[in-house]
Specification:
Length: 134
């Protein structure tokens, strides 16, 4: 395991292509969503995150897109990382599910359409009649 600190986008993308999985060990609710989890999902990587009662659980579904461990539990985090290494076929399946979930819920188009829908709902505007979701 290597901690690299800040990286330019090109290097980050290269590492996301090359890595085995993405670990998001945050234990603080202030890191509520976990953009790096989305980045891992976008590249079809199995995910490991802590259950902190925030959006991370919406991104990483336990035993589907990856593994979820208790916060501030380095032993559980280590066991989760070892498990992914010991079961590469299952890790690959989780990565595929993470990518599928990303495409179903988190692409820019999906997010914009969801926000536009909520906004129309709040102001009482009808959905557009055309084939466009915006």
């Amino acid at each position: 395991m290597h901690f690299l600190g800040f990286l330019p986008d090109e290097e980050k993308v290269a590492l996301l292509h090359a890595c085995y999985g993405v670990v998001f060990p945050s234990h603080l609710r202030s890191e509520a969503f976990g953009i790096s989890l989305l980045e891992g999902a976008m590249f079809g990587k199995p995910l490991i995150s802590s259950e902190i009662g925030t959006g991370t659980t919406f991104i990483n579904i336990a035993n589907e897109t990856g593994l979820v461990v208790p916060p501030s539990d380095p032993i559980a985090l280590n066991q989760a990382m070892q498990w992914l290494c010991e079961y590469p076929h299952r890790a690959s399946e989780m990565g595929a599910q993470a990518l599928k979930r990303y495409r179903e819920h988190f692409t820019a188009e999906k997010m914009v359409n969801a926000y536009a829908h909520v906004h129309r709902e709040l102001i009482g505007a009808p959905e557009p009649v055309t084939g466009h979701k915006l």
